[in-house]
Amino acid sequence: MWRFLLLAFVATASAQIPSLGWCPDFQAMANFNMNRFLGTWYEAERYFTVTELGTRCVTTHYTSTPEGRILVTNEITNSLTGFKRIMEGHLQKVGREGEGRVMVKYSSAPLPYDFEYSILDTDYDSYAVMWACSGIGPVHTQNTWLLSRDRLPSLAVMQNAYAVLDRYKISRTFFLKTNQADCTVLPEPAAAMMDAKSADVPVPAEVPVEKAKEVEQPVEKRVDPEVKAAEPEVRSAVPEPAEEAKPMQVPELIMSESEKKEEKIEKIEPVIGLAPEMNEFKENKDIPIAQ
């Protein structure tokens, strides 16, 4: 009885759906083509799992090597811290030839472990339904994943995946949608950002006080006379007011009032000499003139 309760507790803690009885006999997909299944798959919905509690942006990459090995890389991002956890391993085919039963052996986990699951159905281009079951005695646990090629699948793609669940009579009650929003840009640690910023900005060296004062003093700019003469004269676009023209003062033309009268008399005397009667008339200007 205690063993049964302990097994039930372990099954519940592993976050798979515990059930009484043996594992259902679900047949994996026949004629499964592993080469077409390679590539990137995004987790759309899944059963509740403790290992994926508080996670988002769950992605799985299947790649093949030249040696024929198939490598598996799981990327899981923590919803609170933004840190991405990567689990690496390799895939092996199990079961009958052409059957979609595989086993993944993870080696990068704290403790290496194997995980077997079946691919119930896929069209290789849009959706895939994966199922796993393990049990001891009359208790077993199941887990189911709905994968899509697109990070945000359309409703038509999900309807095709739901049809596979209905065909195998797998309940959708315990399914949870995986958060695949804002997965292209993941937050980085603040310390890494600060280190990158400090590495890009150079720290200026300390300058002595005396040299700093010398730098602050203005330096007189010396200009070569020849270069200055070659420089064009810069004139303002606003016209300057013209100065009033002053009359030219010629020394020979400046005369006093007395000199002007003498010059006038000298000009009149030759005329008087030619007409003596006018002189007499001038001297006797009081004599009335007979009319």
TrEMBL record:
One of the protein's GO biological processes: lipid metabolic process
Region forming the signal peptide: 1-15
UniProt-listed InterPro entries: Calycin (IPR012674), Invtbrt_color (IPR003057), Lipocalin_CS (IPR022272), Lipocln_cytosolic_FA-bd_dom (IPR000566)
Domain Lipocalin/cytosolic fatty-acid binding residues, every copy: 33-150
Pfam families: Lipocalin_2 (PF08212)
Compositional bias of kind Basic and acidic residues: 215-234
GO CC entries: cytoplasm
GO MF annotations in UniProt: pigment binding
PROSITE patterns: LIPOCALIN
The keyword Signal belongs to this UniProt entry's keyword annotation: yes
Disordered, as annotated region: 215-262
Keyword Disulfide bond applies: yes
Keyword entries, A-Z: Disulfide bond, Signal
PANTHER family associated with the record: APOLIPOPROTEIN D
This protein's name: Lipocalin/cytosolic fatty-acid binding domain-containing protein
Originating species: Mythimna separata
Organism classification: Eukaryota, Metazoa, Ecdysozoa, Arthropoda, Hexapoda
